[in-house]
Amino acid sequence: MRNDVCVLITSVPSGADVVPHRKDVFCEVKSVVRSEYFAAYGVGLIPKLTFGMNPDDYSACTEIHEGKKYRPTQINYDGELYTIIRTYQKNVGEMEITAG
After folding, report:
1. What is the CATH number of the domain that holds 67?
2. Helices (H), the chain
3. What is the pTM of this model?
4. Terminal-residue alpha carbon distance, the chain
5. Distances (CA, A) of 1 to 25, 26, 50, 52, 68
6. How far does Cα 14 stand from its chain's mean position?
């Protein structure tokens, strides 16, 4: 059940600056499964949470600038900023984002 709200952040270059685009989306917050945690930890990443959301919400955060697509790279949830490690579309109506 997607009853939490997180903010997807897409960073887009604008001249010498980087402009963050923010969008609130409904999500379901889950813990990271053990196998995924250890696989990521083995290559130096530390996943903390998994966010379930609608793939259309994620796609709506994609920004196009000068012909290049920029997808969300960060998630703000409950006052903490997380970096997106992996995205996975489970089916037509569900996507999982692992962040750390």
Report:
1. 2.40.10
2. 34-41, 55-60
3. 0.86
4. 22
5. 13, 9, 14, 9, 33
6. 21
Task: Name the residue range of residue 10's domain.
Answer: 4-99
Element (H, E) at 67: none
- Extract the tokens encoding 27: 């999500």
Determine how many CB atoms are found less than 10 A away from the CB of residue 82: 20
Cα separation of 73 and 85, whole Å? 8
Residues 6-46 pLDDT 10s: 999 999 998 889 989 999 999 999 988 777 766 766 777 78
Structure tokens at 94: 């569900």
Q: What is the pLDDT of residue 45?
A: 73
Percent of the chain with pLDDT over 70: 95
For residue 55, the one-letter residue type is P
